[in-house]
Structure formats: structure tokens, C-alpha cells
Amino acid sequence: MTVVRQNEDILDLLRDHARQLRELRRRTLFGAAITEGDMSVRTPEGNTVMQVGQIPYGSGTVSGMAIYRDDGTLQARFFDTAGGGGFWSLYDEAENAVVSNDTVSGVGLATPYITCQVMPSSEVTTPPTLVAAAGFTNYFRVHYQRQHPRLRCLLICVTDAATTGEVVLNQGGSQISTVLPIAPSSNDYFTIDGTVTGNFLSVAAVDVQARRASGAGTFRIAVAWSAGVQS
Questions:
Q1: Which residues, in sequence order, are bridge partners of residue 80?
Q2: What span, in angstroms and rounded, lies between the C-alpha atoms of 168 and 213?
Q3: Where are the beta strands (DSSP E) in 146-200?
Q4: pLDDT tens digits, residue range 7-56?
Q5: pLDDT (tens digit per residue) in 187-202
Q6: What is the spatial distance between Cα 228 and Cα 180, in angstroms, rounded to a whole number?
Q7: pTM to 2 decimals?
Q8: Domains of the chain, with CATH numbers?
């Protein structure tokens, strides 16, 4: 039996097809594979803000992802490297790589360089600060602009066989760390962390306090290094 569609039926069919096409355009792209070329995300003005697939690198291309500012300058780049490693970097407005990973070792950062503390060898062997107080007393103060929620200090502590010590971190009169015990006959590195309060980039001042907990002998201390760390 032959079915003859009326004009209204054909119009309804075309409208339904148009509706389905609009729905497809609105849907998220799932399961897509890019093996050649790239997929780009552009602003309404036509500026590319992201590329996925084959992205520019040097005089050629690599497989990865690049993110651009609206003016076309590179903001971030992620791509595979020979041997199965991966390279990522963040760029300033002059397209200098300000943060990037070390692809040679596969561990840690390539940039930025992080400063290291230097101490005279004599002060490592015999810290010049002698702790004699029975109560917690300020011996060092760390100043910095707060970017991390916690502060870590690397200490050198030396005690004789009959003396113990304790160290805490204090901010504005409030203890912000647990008590770090220093046993008799210590001569080693110790770390102590404290949770620092304040707004982002506000100036924080943290005191390293110590006391001689027992005995009447020698307790010496030095701060070898300090840095903001994550929670």
C-alpha cells in the first residue's frame, strides 16, 4: 500500500529534522579523536584561545594543547616529548616560560629557579644561638608575604648529653605549631611546620621560639632554611 504524504506532513518532517540538527549543534562533542590537524576554540571575534591536536612548536608542530590570550600571545602549553615524557609550561605576557617542568630528569621544575640558603660551615657545626631560657623565647623571626597556608622551617639543633630542648612557631603571640622536642645529644636537622594566618600576599611575621626543657647544659639552634608550603 502506497502512503502519500501531505504537504503538512513534509513540512513537519523538515521542521523535525531542523530541530534535531539544532540539538546536535548544541551537544557536547564526545569520543572525538584528532589524529591530524587541530581543533581550535575561538572567540566571537575569531581569535584562537585554545588549540588541541597538532600545535605549533619551534619550526614544526607537536601533539598537545596550547592556550592563548585574546591578543594571540601564548599562555600555556602541554605536549608529549620523545621517550613518553611530557612538557608543560606557563608563560607571561612576553611569552617567557615562567613555570615549567624538567623533562631531562622527569622530576621537579625547570623554572623558576628556587633560592637556597647558605650558612658558614662553622655555624652548621656549632650554631651561634645559645638557648638558656626556661620559657619559650623568641630567637628568630621569619618575614614573608603569605602565599601558602603553612610555613616550614629547617632547623639545626645541638644539645649536650644532659639537656633537652623544645621549639615552637609563634605568630602574633599565638602558637601555630606543635611542640618540637629536641632530645639529649642531638646534632641534626629538624623540620617544624606552622599554619600561618592572614590574607593572600599579606606580610606575615613568624617567630621561632625555643626553650631549654631540662638540664643545665648546652642547647644551640640555627634556622637553616624556611619556605611556605601547602597544607
A1: 86
A2: 12
A3: 150-159, 164-171, 174-175, 180-182, 187-195
A4: 556 677 777 777 776 766 665 555 556 666 778 888 888 899 999 988 98
A5: 999 999 999 999 999 9
A6: 18
A7: 0.75
A8: 38-111 (no CATH), 121-229 (2.60.120)
